[in-house]
Structure formats: structure tokens, C-alpha cells
Amino acid sequence: MARSEKGAFPLTLGMLKLIPWRRSIHQPPPLYHSSFTHPFLFISRFLSGSPPTAEEEEMYDPPFSPTHAQIPRNKNKSKIIAKKKQPPKINSDRANDFPVKSELPFDFMYSYSEISPGVEPIGFREPPRFSPFGPGRIDRKWNGTTAPAQQKPDLEKLAAEERQRVLGEPLSDEETAQLVEKYRHTNCSRQINLGKGGVTHNTLEDIHNHWKRAEAVRIKCLGVPTLDMDNICFHLEDKSGGKIIYRHINTLLLYRGRNYDPGKRPQIPIMLWKPYAPIYPKLVKNVADGLTFEETKEKRNRGLNSPPLMKLSRNGVYVNVVERVRTAFETEDVVRLDCTHVGTSDCKKIGVKLRATAENIRVAVANNIILFRVTKTKLKNRNMGEMIPFQLLS
Questions:
Q1: DSSP secondary structure string for all residues of 333-375
Q2: For 185-213, how does the pLDDT look when each residue is reduced to its tens digit (9 = 90+)?
Q3: DSSP state, 377?
Q4: Distance (Å, rounded) from C-alpha 252 to C-alpha 244?
Q5: In this structure, what DSSP letter does residue 262 have?
Q6: Does the keyword Hydrolase apply (predicted)?
Q7: How many other CB atoms sit within 10 Å of the CB of residue 240?
Q8: SS3 at position 251
Q9: N or C: which end of the chain has fewer CB within 10 A?
Q10: Cα separation of 131 and 120, whole Å?
Q11: CB atoms < 10 A from the CB of 328, how many?
């Protein structure tokens, strides 16, 4: 037990740790020190520097600053620096892949089933010079909505002949039943989902990727495009070159053909991002065509107070909506569809598509509710007509 400088209080082990001049218990005291002038202080320091006991070893507190371990130097550092300075190797075959030269006879656009090229936009939300295919990646020029195909003589005729050659002989009933049973179930891995964008450009690439390992692909449609499934089937067959062999409500099976060769498939450039929708003229007007403001307001109030014909859900299946609206117009002049859970954008798209079912239908949208007004009481066997671009309402 060591004593203090005056010998009044004993110095315990804890007090010795608090003294700033105390050295580590593993280091012996120096032989010559200035504390020789104070003998009692020297004796206390000498006693504190005695060999540590087992108890002191357990209570030893290591220093906070960690010891710096010697990191072995990399002998190949000069080689690594030399490798970094070398320029990256450019694959000559990959560099020659662009621009992609596609022989497809139709114009490239974001959606083929939900847009009509006959309606011209009045403005753009982004400069038309920014192509969604990327700069210099295709041999076509993007004009803001489409990338027109190069005009060549008899190009469509050659494409039709090539399609007939790939399809080959028609499938027999037994072959069709076998393919349908194989790919129509919900657990089929060869499936593509179509949303409110309809048949988009990148969907064609997905179809050909599935056709590499499967004879047919299952396509499930949801949302606004299901209002006109005939339009969906037409664009799938026309743009991909396949054939619809099965159709049930919103489920389709697209067959690739007997003579389909994945190595000779058409080259389809990928659209890198979804382009901004252009600005089109307003189709859903506050005052319906052919009516005054008071008459439009009176029809709107009648529709708001009338019971809804149907209640639509978001991303639902609207296959039977057109037929039910036509049937309702045989006895009523105002029909209301409850689109509370659909969303404003999809609500307007549904109204514009339904307006194409007859010439005398007027559309009004208020609080996610679509109203229709027709002058004739009987509308039968009318076609959907030309599709209105869905970008008009987005």
C-alpha cells in the first residue's frame, strides 16, 4: 500500500490510476528523474511501478487510442496504376450495332392501340428533338409523337407475304386445343400484362422474347383498353405478326406461327423511357356541342341525381360496358357511370372511348362521374370507330 506525499492518506489502486503522471504498469520507472529531490514522492512512484499483481492485471484499462497495425504494402501497386491508365477496350461488334435499322413497315410510337395518328397535337411538354429511343440509336427521326418509317415501294406487301410465310398452314382443331390447354391457365409463366397503355412499343419486344422458348404467349388485359378488345387483337396481330388462337373475356393467346425462327425475328429497338404526353385540344368541354349552358347544366344535374348504371373499379375489366350503355340508351337519354374509384384520368379516357360508340353522345365529367346524353333513343349495331388518343386526357 503506497502513501501520499505527506503520508496522511493511503494511495489506493484506483487513486493511482487517476494520477496523470502515473505510468503504465507494464513499464518500469526511469533510473534518473527530477523527483529525486522529493524522496517521498519518488518512493510512492517507485512502489507504484512495482510488478503488477493478478488483481491489477484484471483491472487494467487499456488506452483509448488503438495501436496502428502495420498494413502490408501492395507490391503490385504499380501494375494496378498502369491498368487504370489504360483506355477501356471498345467492342467493335457492339459499337457497330447503332443505329438500329428496322425493316418494320409501321411508324414507331409509344402506344399503338390507345392513340390515333390522325389527331395532331397543339403543343409538347418536352422538346421533340429528345427521342425516347436515345440519341443516334435508330435510323428514324422522332417528331414528338412518332418515328415515321422510311417510305419504300411495296413494303407493306412484302411484310404481309413474310407474315403468311411465318404463320404457315393453319392449325388443326387438335393442335389449337393442345396449345390452349397448355397456355391458358393462370399459372402459365409465359404471360404479359397489358395495362392502361394498351399495346405499347416495348410490348412487341416482350412478345418476341417469349416466343424464343414458347409457341404461344398468354396476354392479360386490364383497365381502359378492355373497352375495345377488337382493337387490342388487331394491333397485336398486325404489329407482332402472330395470330390470336384463343380469346376469353380479357385473356388472349397469341400464336407465333409454324415457321417462326428466333434467329430471323424482326429487329425492334427498345424505347428507353416513356415520352411525355403531348398537348391535344380539349375534348371534354364544359358546354356540350349543340347545347346551351343551361341545357348542359340541366342534363348534368339530372345525371347526378339518377341511379348509376354501373360502378367501375380501378384497373378493372370493362368488356361489357359498351354493350350495357347501348342497351340503356334505348330507353334513357341520360346514363351515369359511377367512377369514384377509377381516377380522374382513366375516367376521362373511358368517357372519350364511349363517346365514339355513337355520333350524338355528349360527355360531361364531374366529381369522377361520367354522364352521357344522346338525342336518338335507339342505337344498335354501331362500331367503336376511330380511337381517340388517350394522351388527350392525361
A1: SEEEEE-TTT-HHHHHHHHHHHHTT-TT-EEEEETTEEEEE-S
A2: 988 889 999 998 999 999 999 999 999 99
A3: S
A4: 7
A5: G
A6: no
A7: 22
A8: strand
A9: N
A10: 18
A11: 19
Question: Of all residues in the chain, what percent carry a pLDDT higher than 70?
Answer: 64
What residue spans define the domains of the chain? Answer: 2-58, 108-264, 293-393
Residues 167-192 have pLDDT tens digits of 999 999 999 999 999 999 988 889 99
Whether pTM exceeds 0.85: no
Q: Which of 208, 196, 270, 197 is CA-nearest to residue 239?
A: 208
- How many Å apart are CA 229 and CA 387, to the nearest integer? 12
Contacts of 242 (CB under 8 A, 6+ apart): 167, 207, 211, 236, 254, 255, 256, 257
Handedness of CA 228, 229, 232, 237 (dihedral sign): negative
With contact defined as beta carbons under 8 Å apart, do 246 and 252 qualify? Answer: yes
**Whether residue 37 has pLDDT greater than 60:** no
Domain 293-393: which CATH number of 3.40.50.1820, 3.40.50.2000, 3.30.110.60, 3.40.50.920: 3.30.110.60
- Closest listed residue to residue 180, CA positions, set 243, 259, 113: 243
| Residue bearing cell 483491472 | 59
Amino acid 166 reads V
* Contact by Cβ (8 Å): 299, 373: yes
Nearest of 293, 113, 369 to residue 221 by alpha carbon: 113
CATH number of 108-264: 3.30.110.60
Angle at 302 between CA 297 and CA 306, to 5 degrees: 150
Which three cell numbers mark 1? 500500500
Tell me the C-alpha distance between 24 and 20, whole Å.
11
